[in-house]
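Curious: why these numbers?
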Amino acid sequence: MLENDIFECLTTVLDTHNARYRVMEHSTGGRSEEIAKIRGTHLGQGAKALVCHVKGDGYRQYVLAVLPADQQADLATLAMQMGGKRASLASPKEVSELTRCVFGAIPPFSFHPDLKLVAEPLLFERYDELAFNAGSLERSIILNTEDYRRIAAPELVAFRKTDD
């Protein structure tokens, strides 16, 4: 099954790089708030991964944009920061092809050469651990934040909505 494939990829990468993490099996949660309660974590510890399509001025790139679950993405800012004109969320078919996961189960790691990994800097500023669905809606990984940054090596891009 596809989701087990992603889980195996994740745990292999984490084990190979001596990451500090734990796996949690749980019931399927709906929204980020619900899953944080189930995990016993703060909402902001959730690493929300959005598959986006950035394009414009000859630029075309799929991006896995990761931000804290208590924040909202500003897709216009993401597009501008990436060198494009506009950004949109990818279709369910594109998400499945690029991540081998369903919406809501996408971990903050890219295993596809056409999917560029970027992270909102705030992800690394507030919590010692990040939590995310590990290729399944019923399985999470809680990972040391610095280990995530070291292993995934995302490009840092500020793209969360602010009140400015």
